[in-house]
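User: Protein folding is very new to me. Would you mind checking the protein record under this note? It all follows right here:
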Amino acid sequence: MKKYRYVLFDLDGTLVDSGEGITRSVEFALAHFGIFPASREELFCFIGPPLVDSFMRFYGFSRERAGEAADIYRSRYRVKGVHENKVYPGIPELLESLVNAGFSPVLATSKPEVFANVVLEDTGLKRYFRFIAGAELDDAEGRKRKLRLKKDEVIAYALEQLGAEPASALMVGDREHDILGAKANGVDSVGVLFGFGSRGELEEAGADYIAERPGDVLRICLENGGTV
């Protein structure tokens, strides 16, 4: 039987609905290049994956141009977008229950760590987390060196800092990169359906469990770990 101790959580689309802040900031960046999407829903694909990769993948930008777009995005996001979040119903109760049951919630997000801390402070969720692992900011200065950006790198960093074995951790996220990042580290995963991914995306990526609501995440954890 599995015995999880650490529950690693994605942030955007898993703990909070960050759609407004992210998509409005992407719109702001694209407008600089004369690109005007028909709707913000078209930009939901930016929620979760590393930002520079998304500009390259979805709009065909070169890495240099994607880096410029990311800088423009952040000029709005750090002032407005980082505060445009709504906690999903049931998430505070889930985190409280996990702590009370002996689990250690850990944040593992591809969002730059500096912004992740602001979101957790704003929403009152920070107090539940044993450790916060995020991406390093891929700004103009940071691009001069190798950075921690992708989900598998963030998960590996979290495990290393915690001194945790992969078998003791469970990754919870709403997109395929959460699941694939977990698999790359030998970590089991839960795909949640209340975020921005789909059941098909999560099952194809190889999620070990599927959760339709936060209460399902708690049930999965209690059936496979905890101390009470």
About this structure: The chain has a mean pLDDT of 93.
